[in-house]
Amino acid sequence: MQTLTAMIRELETRMQGLLNDLQKIKKQARLLAEENDKLREELARFYGKPLEENPAGEGLKELRDLYNRGFHICHGHFGRTRTGDCLFCEAFWSREREGSM
């Protein structure tokens, strides 16, 4: 049977490991948020409009245009080239149709 002191040390070690993992996850989340902001700015520049001037309805039209040009619009693969239909992209359009009814 472990002593109480040994159990506390082991718990501290595991907690430090979890804290390190949390720091790594926070850093990755920050990097992804920065990348997302850059991609939004590039997309707005691509369409020649400032980001704040794009109304929501026009944004959906632009997403449809991207999808029709062969790009993913789903969260997991956004902006990547599609080689065929994507269930996740299609699910997005299904939700949009249901929401607009």
TrEMBL record:
Residues 1-49 form a coiled coil. GO terms for molecular function: metal ion binding. The keyword Metal-binding applies. GO terms for biological process: DNA replication; negative regulation of DNA replication. Pfam families: YabA. It comes from the Bacteria. InterPro entries: YabA. The keyword Membrane does not apply. Keywords: Coiled coil, Cytoplasm, DNA replication, DNA replication inhibitor, Metal-binding, Zinc. This is DUF972 family protein.
